[in-house]
Design goal:
The chain is of the alpha+beta class. It has 4 helices and 7 strands, in the order H-E-H-E-E-H-E-E-H-E-E. The strands form 2 sheets. The protein has a 5-stranded mixed beta sheet with strand order 2-4-5-7-6, covered by helices on one side. A two-stranded antiparallel ribbon has the order 1-3. Helix 1 runs parallel beside helix 4 and helix 2 packs parallel to helix 3. The radius of gyration is 17 Å and the shape is globular.
Length: 186
């Protein structure tokens, strides 16, 4: 600090931020593992509004990385759940899309009610690799062999799965024609 910024101080700063993020993720994961909903109280809220706000906050980053982003969010979808955790769910999937969407590719978010009146949240993005092990994506600390060069801890999707399960929902993943689809049903 006496000698100002250098490549060493910048590197240390970046590592502290990364470790802080990982610590927060591990604490969230630990609390979710407890399965105690009192840690995250449920209330009625507008999923449409929350999703739209998330899209608005991530749109500039998608644009700066020259990635297309599309959303289809009806204005009348409400749900009972923990708004903080659902916001975290959006963050995880938008962050993943920013990291793993192929160059000049597209990502999208669609929210709808299915034939059973359940809420479906579908995140998808273009990917380079069609040959990923989708069975392991939700495992803690799993990193696809093709994603080793990307920043991340391999915790995000396991947190997403725990959030969905706490809300008594289901999450699935499929890969078709160089596009990955995460489907959350709540």
């Amino acid at each position: 600090m006496d000698h100002g910024k250098s490549e060493w101080t910048e590197s240390i700063h970046d590592q502290v931020i990364r470790l802080n993020t990982m610590t927060k993720q591990l604490v969230t994961l630990s609390r979710l593992d407890e399965g105690n909903t009192s840690n995250y109280p449920f209330a009625e809220f507008s999923l449409s509004k929350l999703a739209s706000e998330s899209v608005d906050s991530f749109a500039p980053t998608f644009k700066s990385k020259q990635l297309s982003f599309n959303s289809d969010i009806p204005s009348d979808i409400n749900m009972k759940g923990n708004m903080y955790l659902i916001n975290e769910l959006f963050y995880i999937f938008f962050d993943n899309a920013l990291k793993y969407t192929k160059s000049n590719g597209e990502a999208s978010l669609t929210i709808k009610k299915n034939q059973n009146k359940k809420i479906e949240i579908i995140f998808s993005n273009d990917i380079e690799d069609n040959e990923m092990d989708t069975e392991q994506l939700f495992e803690r600390f799993y990193r696809s062999p093709n994603s080793v060069s990307k920043e991340g801890s391999g915790i995000g999707l396991s947190i997403a799965k725990e959030i969905v399960e706490l809300h008594k929902g289901k999450i699935s993943v499929t890969v078709k024609e160089n596009r990955i689809y995460f489907v959350v049903v709540l």
